[in-house]
Amino acid sequence: QGLKPIVSTESPALIFGTTTKLASDLPAADSFLGKNKVPDLQKVFQRADGLPVHLKRGVPDKLLYRTTMALTIGGTIYCLVALYMASQPRNQ
């Protein structure tokens, strides 16, 4: 009989009617029409100004950081109060 392959060597039937395009087939200019912002952001984040990375972009970062801290502290206090109330026996 000889050796036979366990897995079929034929390609499976096409499920969808559309064909996929390879990256080499796409035109380079049409794939992305925006400006590359990475070099500008690298300059901002690598500047030695003593600020932590999560506050480097100014007011929006400070607002987001302070909101997150307020919600975290508020949630912690709420959980501690709920735990305290749950630990007390009910008056009859």
TrEMBL record:
It comes from the Eukaryota. GO terms for cellular component: mitochondrial inner membrane; respiratory chain complex IV. The gene is Cox7a2l. GO terms for biological process: mitochondrial electron transport, cytochrome c to oxygen; mitochondrial respirasome assembly; regulation of oxidative phosphorylation. Belongs to the cytochrome c oxidase VIIa family. Its main location: mitochondrion. It comes from Oreotrochilus melanogaster. SUPFAM superfamilies: Mitochondrial cytochrome c oxidase subunit VIIa (SSF81419). It is found in: Mitochondrion inner membrane. This is Cytochrome c oxidase subunit 7A2-like, mitochondrial.
